[in-house]
Amino acid sequence: MKVVSVERGDFQVFGSNHSRLGSLRIVGASAEALGKSEALMAKVTFRGISGGASALKIVRAELCYENGTFIRDIEVKDGTIKVLDYIQVVNIEPKSGTELITEKTYTFKLILNYSFTAGDRGYIDLAAKVNDPKNLSIAHRKIPVFGHKIADEKRDVTLKVDVPGDAEKLYIVALLLKGNETSTKIYDVVEYPVKKGGCLIATATFGSELSPKVSFLRSFRDREVLSTFAGRCFMEVFNRFYYSWSPYVADFIRKNAIVKAASKILLYPLIMIPHLSSSTYRCLSQFPEVAILAAGYVASSLKGSVYLGLLLSPIKRFRRMKRHILKAWIYSLLLILIPIVLAEAICFTHLMMAATAIFVLLNIGFSSILTGTSIAEGASILSQIIKRKGRMSHL
Fold first, then answer.
1. Cβ–Cβ < 8 Å for 283, 298
2. Better-predicted residue by pLDDT, 137 or 340
3. 42 near 14, Cβ under 8 Å?
4. Strand 100-101 relative to strand 186-195: parallel, antiparallel, unpaired?
5. How many angstroms separate the CA atoms of 257 and 299, rounded?
6. Percentage helix, strand, coil for the chain under 3-state DSSP, each rounded to 5
7. Which domains occur in the chain, in start order?
8. Alpha carbon 278 to chain centroid distance?
9. % of the chain surpassing 70 pLDDT
10. pTM higher than 0.90, yes or no?
11. Separation CA 178–CA 182 (nearest Å)
12. What is the DSSP letter of 172?
């Protein structure tokens, strides 16, 4: 217990004062950090007060750390100021208020500011909840903390959250658990709005997320693609690209019946291709990372052939370079496999994201060019056959 004797007008220990009629303000600092259950007592002696009883009351109290950060939660009772335990989210990424997308995985990075003095051992419970902060957690992480001197402690933590399809809001909440007890008291909360994600264009075209076609696309993504490291990395890149423009296209399709009908025709190959990719994955499922690369090769090559092959068929220059294009495709795939294998070996997320994106783009590009040249050659042969038959009929 430390006792400081303070005389009005002489505040060498506390530093400064400001008084007005009937009130006194004392500002100062403890000589050293206070340990758990330690206290600092300020004894104030007033001069010039007439005899008789005088009522003294603490009407306001503020405490701050040496760095100037104010302690959030204090309790003033019967002349005693008590520091309460607290947790504060100082910084978080994505920022509070960022619009999240359903059916997508986010990794939240937080800096927590907290004080824990009530026990020798406890936990910070960082939890994610949807639609209401009082609902059950969809993800949580326990962070052990221990009794220490009253100080401004900070911790960098992460929390991985899969945003469900029925989410309208997402809350990241911080709770404090003392010992083995459970608690529902929320010390801090960060709120995020959530918009519908998933296969937006397919959902708008086929009318519902419960459509078998849309459900299969989601199932293929969740059960097979996202179950692998390479698949998750690619989907992170794809989602950033896809969700930057797909909501606007989906709204346009939803509002135009003719466009919706045309979109159904255009999307049927896109629905069938994942079936073939899924079959490829299952054939190699004992080696998931190899399986997802094979499935990605099939999917990207078929999409390039179906959607771009016909458009590139009029380019005559490609017809004379077919053999060179095929060789370039093979060599390019062999080269891009090097960073993919390296990223897989050392779990380098950003390298895998870049390598898988290039892998897919190479397959789309080369497959569309080769398909275009094949269509052009087929059309040329068919034209020659028709001409020959026409000549023979004249004879």
1. no
2. 340
3. yes
4. parallel
5. 29
6. 45, 25, 30
7. 2-82 (no CATH), 86-195 (2.60.40.2550), 200-385 (no CATH)
8. 26
9. 67
10. no
11. 8
12. E
